[in-house]
Every structure is written in C-alpha cells, then in structure tokens.
TrEMBL record:
GO MF annotations, alphabetized: ABC-type amino acid transporter activity; ATP binding; ATP hydrolysis activity
Domain ABC transporter, chain residue ranges per copy: 5-239
Segments passing through the bilayer: none
Sorted UniProt keywords: ATP-binding, Nucleotide-binding, Transport
InterPro entries in the record: AAA+_ATPase, ABC_ATPase_HisP-typ, ABC_transporter-like_ATP-bd, ABC_transporter-like_CS, MetN_ABC_transporter-like, P-loop_NTPase
Record carries keyword ATP-binding: yes
Superkingdom as given in the UniProt entry: Bacteria
CDD domains: ABC_HisP_GlnQ
One protein family per Pfam: ABC_tran
UniProt name for this protein: Glutamine ABC transporter ATP-binding protein
C-alpha cells in the first residue's frame, strides 16, 4: 500500500513544554491507526498537527507527497481531503442536520445543490439517520449528533479521517452506534487516525496501535503486539488501568 502520511522528527512545543518529542512514523493508505495513552500525553496535539490546526515546532509532515509544514503549501486545499471529528461534535446549532452536512461542500467546493443534497441523503443513510434530515441538532441525542458530525466530515469526500475521542462525551448506550459507523468506514478502506479509549474497538478494528506517553510514541505495532506483548513498562501500567 502507498504511503499516505509521513511524519519525520515531529516536535511540538508550547513554550517550554515539549508536547511531542521527535516523532517519526508512516501511515499507509487504508490503514486504521488507534492512538492511545494517558490524558495530557499529546494525543490531541498529534492529531491537530496532522491538519495544521497546530503548527509543528520542527520536523516534517508529508501528506500525499505534500509538505504540510512548508509555508508555501495551500493548507486549505489539503484540509479538504482530511475530515476531522471531535469529542464535542461542534455542529452548527442554527442549521438543520441537512444544512450542517451540505454547508461546506456548497460553500468551499461550490458544488451543485441537488447533487450535494443527494450525497447528504446517502451519508445520512450510512450513519442511520435518514429520518433526522430536517431537524435541528438540539433535538438529537449525543450519539446522533456525533453521527451527523461524521456525515458532515464525509460530505467533503475526504480520504483521511481524524477522530479525537469521538465517543468520550457519549452516554454508554450511544457509543456502539458511533463505533459501528467508524467500523464501516474502516471496512471501506478509509485511512483513519483515531484517538480513543475504546480498547475493544481498537483491538478489533485498528491495523496499528500507537501508545503515546509524555510526548513519546512508546509503542507502534499491531494490536496483538501492543496489547498482549507491550515492550514498555509504561504501556503495561496504562493497559492494566484501562483493560
Ligand atoms: P491529550 O489529548 O493526550 O490529553 P493534549 O495533546 O491535549 O493531550 O495535551 C498535551 C499537553 O499539551 C498538555 O500538557 C496540555 O496542557 C498541553 N497543551 C495542549 N494544547 C495547548 C495549548 N494550546 N497551549 C498550551 N499548552 C497546550
Ligand atoms: Mg485530547
């Protein structure tokens, strides 16, 4: 498989605080990576560096051969290929579900309204919310909101999806539906980087697990390797607490 994202010696500092420490790794097309680790270890910062919501302090991030860290790079162009889903959905409250989904393709891509709405219908079907098309976010449950947020990200036809703890804010009974949508995407070959505490999902769906602690990637391997034969004591401690 072709390399999709190359990360070379990535360092991110906030003032004196080094949050990502010399990270080098490569993500192939269609890979599903789960990033796990304690709170404050740098998971969100890592994800945000991948679409330049945070500027790397040094190092390189190369997506489809384009240097993200290069000032000349048109970041908006690259971001159109990268969907992001956050813990707190961030839907537009004054827009209906359909309008939330069609806003960016109509606005940013200048697409045809009819085609965009047809695509939104397809996406609502994919996430199991066809009947919610005309309602407003306030009438949705957390799990439904998150599935709309996923549909909205997919409406730009991204080829990379980043998820930052997409189920952490949900009531337990809502988690399964969201994970199921993510699994469907993974099965369709989407390249995905997912920060999650859902270890069952990570074991089942991820091709690779990265364990980050204090800004260092201490493990980067197949789920079986990381969960059953971790190399590092810190990983063992973490897994003992969460499994
Ligand atoms: P995680 O997602 O693993 O919980 P984060 O990436 O959010 O961790 O944070 C890692 C570290 O970076 C923490 O010490 C946090 O306080 C710090 N940090 C994150 N964002 C900022 C910011 N915008 N300014 C300053 N410090 C930040
Ligand atoms: Mg975080």
């Amino acid at each position: 498989m072709k390399e999709k994202i190359a990360i070379e010696n990535l360092v991110k500092k906030f003032g004196d605080n080094t949050v990502l420490n010399d990270i080098t790794t490569s993500i192939k097309e269609g890979e599903v990576i789960c990033v796990i680790g304690p709170s404050g270890s740098g998971k969100s910062t890592f994800l945000r560096c991948l679409n330049r919501l945070e500027e790397a302090t040094s190092g390189q991030i190369i997506i489809d051969g384009e240097h993200l860290t290069d000032k000349k790079t048109d970041i908006n162009q690259i971001r159109q290929h990268i969907g992001m889903v956050f813990q707190h959905f961030n839907l537009f409250p004054h827009l209906s579900v359909l309008e939330n989904i069609t806003l960016a393709p109509l606005d940013v891509k200048g697409k045809n309204k009819k085609e965009t709405e047809e695509r939104a219908d397809e996406l609502l079907q994919t996430v199991g919310l066809s009947d919610k098309k005309n309602v407003y976010p306030e009438s949705l449950s957390g799990g439904q909101k998150q599935r709309v947020a996923i549909a909205r990200a997919l409406a730009m036809n991204p080829d990379i999806m980043l998820f930052d703890e997409p189920t952490s804010a949900l009531d337990p009974e809502m988690v399964g539906d969201v994970l199921q949508v993510m699994k469907k995407l993974a099965d369709q070959g989407m390249t995905m980087v997912i920060v999650t505490h859902e270890m069952g999902f990570a074991k089942e769906v991820a091709n690779r697990i990265m364990f980050i602690d204090d800004g260092y990637f201490l493990e980067d391997g197949k789920p079986d390797e990381v969960f059953n034969h971790p190399k590092n004591e810190r990983t063992k401690d973490f897994l003992d607490k969460v499994l």
